[in-house]
Predict the structure of YecA family protein.
Amino acid sequence: MTDLNSIPALTEEELERLGTLLEDEAERNDSFDFFAVHGFITGLLTGPSGASGMDQQTLWDCAFEAQPGFSKAERQEVDTLMSQLSKEIQAWLDSGQDFPVPTDLTLIDDENEPPLESWAMGFMSAVLLNEEAWYAEREEIVAQHLFPIMYASGLFMEEPEMADIDEDADLSDRMCANIPAAVVELYLMMHGAA
């Protein structure tokens, strides 16, 4: 069991700085915000390629426009902070604890796109990059564990079962509450520890 105090966490200031840089870029170029980047990194590390599939270029290519609006110094800062974030996420996945999704586990948000939807969309973007490998073994169980994340992402809303969940706020919240455990189950399944 991992000592949770040993997880290499970003400081509050680092998280805030990364969030600000990503939010500014998302407003400029409709790229991934902090939650989508976090979800995407989590998906890459959870998936069958694991840490070997987690390279900065893949992250940049998927998260940002071809020409992001960062200055050279900001780009270096984002690169460093995202690298630290990936180490923190990897440590959490290795800990075996329920995964700490960095937002409330609900889609009920009267203002903007709920942060959980953004996180789940990022995670599913990583799945869709390598979908065949995700489903190569134990397809039904993988689909079962992915279902709450698929639902929260909003990418599959045309499917009738998703619409049925959307009509029931309690059911929606219960579905979203399954995400932290589902991430751990998927990680253990993909990396031979289950």
Observations:
- The two ends are 15 Å apart (CA to CA).
- Residues 4-190 form a domain with the Four Helix Bundle (Hemerythrin (Met), subunit A) fold (CATH 1.20.120.740).
- The chain is about 65% helix and 0% strand.
